[in-house]
# Entry
Amino acid sequence: MNLEPGQVGADDRGLLLGDGLFETIRLYRGHPFRLEAHLSRLEKGAHRLGLEVPPDLRARIGALLEGGGGWRERDGALRVTLTRGPGWGLLPPQDPNPSLLLALRPWPSGAPPLLEVEAALFGWLDERALTSGIKGTGYLERIQALRESIRVGAEEALLRNSMGRLVEGAAANLFGVREGVLLAPGVRDGALAGITRGILLGLAEELGVEVLERGIDPVELPDLTELFLSSTLREVAAVVRVEGVAIGDGRPGPLTSRLREEFRALVDRERGGGTL
Ligand SMILES: Cc1ncc(COP(=O)(O)O)c(C=O)c1O
# Structure
């Protein structure tokens, strides 16, 4: 792991209160994939929280990549964490001094076999929350949901919103296919505006697939022919069983596989496309 010099103190609000944001960005052969989309999401989140993004953020990412470790050639993941910096008590200090943490770690970028995961229903998201849709550093609900899922023998958690609709995996967007229509829970449903999700929706449109942006009612699970997750780190992963019951024929479905292939092809074409 490569860490940029500069550590947070024991009074950092990111650590004490989860008062911070983060992004995870893939490096495909050293190119930060969709870097601008990630930084723009970070900036939007920071704006909502009244947090200032350091003006030299891009330069610091560039310096880290150019620094030791040969990261310009390597496959990996870059984690950007921005917190409100030091301060006790709930109310942020008048003049906060945000902390920026950059870390790199290896992450293979070859095409692994399509992941097939079993999921269980645990955890709740509130689409009405003031922080809904913000990629904040507080992941306790998601960690617990994942732990509970693993405790019952599954590998992934599907989280529900206040309407009881399935909207996300523990750290991934969720998609379903019902009668050929792609169901994609969105920000209004309580999901994050995932960068991978956005790309997959664009690809689905190019393929002429009808898309409905809405949460998935657990009662319609038997009617789904496919269910899958998307995220920066896992790209596309098929959910083949939920609560022990097979989705479709219990194997990755055709649209899941097609979108995953198209996503892979796009990554190859762009070779990351990072502008740094
Ligand atoms: C809660 C949550 N939803 C969705 C995603 C997927 O977003 P992206 O495709 O931008 O990685 C993530 C990624 O880590 C996440 O943590």
Remarks:
- The chain has a mean pLDDT of 94.
- Helices lie at 13-17, 35-49, 57-66, 140-151, 195-206, 254-270.
